[in-house]
Amino acid sequence: MVSIIEHYKVLGVSVGAGLSDVTSSYKRLCRLYHPDLNDDPESEEQMKKINIAYSALREKLKREAAFRERQSYPRPARRYTTPDVRTETRKTDVEAEKDANTVLSSYFRAIGACDYSGAYSFLSAYDRRHITRDSFIEWRKSVARLYPMRDFKVSGGRSGISVSFGEGKTCPACKFRVTITEEDMTDGSKQSGEVEKVVVYENQLWRVFLGYQGVGDLTRGFDERFEARRKRDIARRWEEYYTGLYPEYDMLNTEGMRKAVLREIYRQKRFGGTLTFAVFSVKAGNIEGNGQDELLRSAARTIVGTLRETDISAYIGDGIFTILYVELQKRNAKDILDRLTERIKKNAGPQLGGRATVVLEYESWAGRDYASIDDINKVLRKFRKKM
Fold first, then answer.
1. 366 and 270 inside one domain
2. Is the pTM of this model over 0.70?
């Protein structure tokens, strides 16, 4: 599933932009990429992404506008029906900290179980007024793909503080330190970090207080971390995650591709999404001299040049290239791979391209149809290869 942040990036607008800005950018991109106005064969695929992004953002912004309008109406106080930990005002600070700790721990357990709707139910009324449930869920999914939390530990409660919500409203609060541990299931590496979280006491209930003033505020800090982390990962991918490359082709080898596949399968099972695994067998036929080597170098350049930063390619010998597409829709996979096949032949030049043989096999997994290393090997066995 494409995150809401990706939709903003497709349209070229900042996260939190209004409907008028989104619509203006959409119209501008239509004039650039509409197939009737652009002869580029890839313009149709780009236009599909633009339409999907505009439709998703338009509906999202309309829902948020309707929500804000409803919130402006005067209404009676409501009772929360979600599981709550109630604290009487006569309780001591130690007892209050214990109850607040319980709520914060429940919030992180829900996040760890990918129950983002349940986690939203523990947020303060202030956060709910400014952030819709759908926006919170989309944000948490984006965070989870980048930071897969595996464990947490709440410590260091400090009571006796207060939080001001404006308009003269102030609530008692407790502040905690939360140590979060992330684990990479493909190589067993772990990393830990510490954040501070505040739990406020409102309407005789302890609630987790994030303090965001809108969707833009919610995602702004994450966007900055996402971009920095993305650049670090790209640089580190070749240095740490995968060992052994084919420098001539700027691709992974079989061992590196196996690690990449295992990592993305783990992410797919935990956070959803779509994976497509494709295999190309490229042969030069009866061409004398270095024809096969020239063809393979040309094919490698073509494949690498068409991939996004989230996609991964490898050369595993005997003229066989593999590609792992991340979040590629099933219905589009065939068209994209067919166009890539034709591009491999075309870029090989008249002599090699006319006599080159390119055999394609691929499989896609989406939704609850998760991939596995055995599924990958079923595709490879048709070429008598295995990871």
1. yes
2. no
Structural domain that includes position 191: 93-220
Tally of domains in the chain: 3
Residues recorded for the chain: 387
Angle (deg, nearest 10), helices 43-72 and 133-146: 130
b/e string for 300-333 if b means 16 or more Cβ within 10 A?
Answer: bebbeebeeeebbbbbbeebbbbbbbbbbeeebb
Please tell me whether residues 377 and 254 are part of one structural domain.
Answer: yes
Mean pLDDT by 10 residues, the chain (387 residues): 75 78 83 78 84 85 70 45 44 71 88 84 88 85 68 79 74 88 61 85 87 74 62 57 66 86 82 88 74 88 86 91 86 88 88 82 86 93 91
CA-nearest of 365, 244, 263, 262 to 314 is: 244
Backbone φ, ψ for residue 82 (5° rounding): -75, 160
Q: Are residues 347 and 270 in the same domain?
A: yes
- Domain with 44 in it: what CATH number? 1.10.287.110
CA 289, CA 201: separation in Å to the nearest integer?
79
Calculate the CA 19 to chain-centre distance: 23
Choose one of 151, 186, 220: the last residue of a domain.
220
- Nearest Cα to 31, choosing from 17, 46, 21, 16? 46
Distance CA 344, CA 236 (A): 29
